[in-house]
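User: structure tokens for this one?
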Amino acid sequence: MRRLARTAALLLGSLALSTTLAAAQDGQPSRVRGTIAAVDGSTLSVTSREGPVVKIAMAPDVGIRGVKAALASDIKAGDYVGAATLPAEGGKSGALEVLIFPAVMKGANEGSFPWDLQPNSTMTNATVSNAVESVSGRELTLTYPTGSRQITLPQGIPVVTFAEATAADLKPGAPVFVPATKAADGSLSTAFVVVGNQGVVPPM
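Assistant:
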């Protein structure tokens, strides 16, 4: 029963993440990165990386996931990953971070689209069709329905995967990544929170 409950929770969390990432892509991106300032009922206050404290309304069934460290060598052909990148030489892209999705999330918000981790960055959610080692590090070929992208993984970039997390992990001082939706009145809401509960700052 516990295993079924964990699987159900992961499925719900995966759906929430897919929905909120898609909303951020199709609407006005309102991704919040920073540390938790306070939690008051369903309101999450975050000291954003830009400085101001922002308030985010969490859905009643908000999905909460942690992140834990992984290795570039863990990435295999057939894995589904999300990679934030910057343009690099030779038509390739240089990874800023890589998230290895659990198998249940394969296909979630698949594609390549603008991202706001850094200026001119892009997020690509896709299947690894080739993974090789090179002199300078690891190289991946990511394939999605409308194209493909070659990505280099410089040494030392964050490579992570999801970990278990609960509402109890939403504590003041904890680092978070929140893919939020902004309403017409400027208020923010979310159905998913990624919290750094394993000593790893969410790198997305």
